[in-house]
């Protein structure tokens, strides 16, 4: 992998970021290859296990996670997806029984998924203790790619701070960046790729956990409003049925609504969503984050590649972000089986082009198309939803994209 006069690097693969996408990649590589792997994370596994955020996992993602023993014990199934737009006709229904799957997807807690993947990785490390080195509490400062005299690129160098204080440098054949962030993160991960497609949607998402008086088991709702999409995903807990809320609106409205007393917030949510599940009765603390698109046009630069949110941060409409990132990790593991080389990374980039383009394009189009004001556009969108409902092949194609993407 290096020229015969050069010392072998410390590792074959360095993974920067031990969130669910980075952990999944580490599990696949440890299971399927003999590479020496370094796994960096700024946090520790215990902190990740306490993260309460909700993730929507497609059926295809469940299949991939179960394959490596990373499926969490707590997961709420989605059996029915209802899509509509506020103030106009037209709706579409996607039902589990139409596709011969146990569920269209599941909603899990980020911390539960991280804990399951960490447990799976720990079990593999006990069997192969010399193949993977973890660097927890070790933020990466930068990744260096230095050219050789013959024009090739020497093994990459990762510079980090152990425990946030002690300098550390390792050399590796390839670096996989799996540590992403939100659209408005000012700090971009060290060594990130330079050429990105970027769009600010002018929307902010309010996220919370809510309860209602007449929940419908297994139903997920995507309701488009002039302000932005409003999604309710079934997420049960010890107190009973509940929903993960993602409510997209203008930044000013998001700040105002997030700061409302619970009763006032629930009343406005009821007005926006309607009474299909009775009245809303409880809301957790609200959090907000800005929404936008930030996607690497080519997620590979010589010995460095990006997957998951490091490669693309997309709109949460249809809940596709993590599922796309997990498919990145799966295909990266496949590409690296034959060699931890720049050629393998280039092959990964080629093979991910179509799936990334379709998923990014769909999640970029939907929030903008449904935000165009006016009755004429509302009627056109209603006609499109009606057409989707009445043409099973069209709906099947959309459902398959949501469950599996364009994975080969």
From TrEMBL:
<dbReference type="InterPro" id="IPR018168">
    <property type="entry name" value="Ubi_Hdrlase_CS"/>
</dbReference>
<dbReference type="GO" id="GO:0008681">
    <property type="term" value="F:2-octaprenyl-6-methoxyphenol hydroxylase activity"/>
</dbReference>
<keyword id="KW-0560">Oxidoreductase</keyword>
<dbReference type="InterPro" id="IPR011295">
    <property type="entry name" value="UbiH"/>
</dbReference>
<keyword id="KW-0285">Flavoprotein</keyword>
<keyword id="KW-0503">Monooxygenase</keyword>
<dbReference type="InterPro" id="IPR010971">
    <property type="entry name" value="UbiH/COQ6"/>
</dbReference>
<dbReference type="InterPro" id="IPR051205">
    <property type="entry name" value="UbiH/COQ6_monooxygenase"/>
</dbReference>
<dbReference type="Pfam" id="PF01494">
    <property type="entry name" value="FAD_binding_3"/>
</dbReference>
<protein>
    <submittedName>
        <fullName>2-octaprenyl-6-methoxyphenol hydroxylase</fullName>
        <ecNumber>1.14.13.-</ecNumber>
    </submittedName>
</protein>
<feature type="domain" description="FAD-binding">
    <location>
        <begin position="11"/>
        <end position="345"/>
    </location>
</feature>
<dbReference type="InterPro" id="IPR036188">
    <property type="entry name" value="FAD/NAD-bd_sf"/>
</dbReference>
<dbReference type="InterPro" id="IPR002938">
    <property type="entry name" value="FAD-bd"/>
</dbReference>
<comment type="pathway">
    <text>Cofactor biosynthesis; ubiquinone biosynthesis.</text>
</comment>
<dbReference type="GO" id="GO:0071949">
    <property type="term" value="F:FAD binding"/>
</dbReference>
<dbReference type="GO" id="GO:0006744">
    <property type="term" value="P:ubiquinone biosynthetic process"/>
</dbReference>
<keyword id="KW-0274">FAD</keyword>
<comment type="similarity">
    <text>Belongs to the UbiH/COQ6 family.</text>
</comment>
